[in-house]
Structure formats: C-alpha cells, structure tokens
Amino acid sequence: MQGRSVISMPLRRACNGKPARPSVRERHPLWWLWSGASLAAAAVLVLMFSLFFSPTLSWAQVVERFRALPFFNVTMYVAMDPAQPPEKLEYGLRKDHRTRLHYRGLILLARVTRW
User: Fold this and answer.
1) Where are the alpha helices (DSSP H) in 1-115?
2) Which class for 112: exposed (0-12), middle (13-18), buried (19 or more C-beta within 10 A)?
3) Which of 13, 28, 58, 101 could join 108 in a cystine, given CB atoms 3.0 to 4.6 angstroms apart?
C-alpha cells in the first residue's frame, strides 16, 4: 500500500478483505408480525384505558333506564355439568308489570305488584 491512503480504499471491502454489510438494511421476513403485534398492544391499551377510566353507571341509573323501557327480555343458558348441554331460561318483564318465565317447556305468567 505504497502511496495509497486508507480513505481511498474501495468501500466494498472492509478489514481483512471481507465484503462489508450492504448499505440498505433488509427487512426481516416477519416484519409484518411486529407491526401487527404493536397495533394489537395499542388496541389493548386503549381498551384498558376506556374500561378503567370511563365513568360507570350507578345502580339508580340502571334502574331508571330499565323503568324507561316498555319491556325487556333476558335469555340465559345454564349448565350444571360441563358435559351436558346447557338449559335455556327466558325471562321477560313488561311495563304493565306482567312477567313471563319460560323453562323446559313450562311457561309461567305472573303479575308483579311491586317493581
């Protein structure tokens, strides 16, 4: 290396004659997984924030909303044993204080005096 400076050496070659790394960084084959994971983490954070810092309803507000409804129906599936299929239980209440309960083909109609 007589008369040649180190600066004028070709940039393709690094020390010991090995080729240098490419100047443009290549993407990892699973780059989309990292972006999807970061989006999912952001969505979870937004959901957690909205659940813990949003105002909740008091019981009086819940009762007021149910009283404003002309009627409502609730359907529940109850299983005592996980191996057995669940049983269906329907309950309905109307504004005129009539109620309906349907369980195993039995329909019970009643009138509620206090609501």
Assistant:
1) 31-53, 59-68
2) exposed
3) 101
Residue in this structure with the two tokens 């129906």, named with its chain if needed:
73
Spatial distance between the Cα atoms of 43 and 37, rounded to a whole number of angstroms: 10
Give CB contacts under 8 A, 24+ apart, made by 4-11.
none
Tokens read off for 73: 């129906």
79 close to 85: Cβ distance less than 8 angstroms: yes
Taking CA atoms, 55 is separated from 32, 47, 51, 61, 115, in Å, by: 36, 14, 9, 12, 27
Question: How far apart (Å, rounded) are the C-alpha atoms in residues 11 and 5?
Answer: 13
pLDDT of residue 90: 95
- Residue pLDDT tens, the chain, 115 long: 555 555 544 544 555 556 556 556 677 677 667 778 888 999 999 988 887 887 888 889 888 888 888 888 999 999 988 898 999 999 998 888 899 999 988 999 999 876 5
Q: Give the span between the Cα atoms of 79 and 59, in whole angstroms.
A: 28
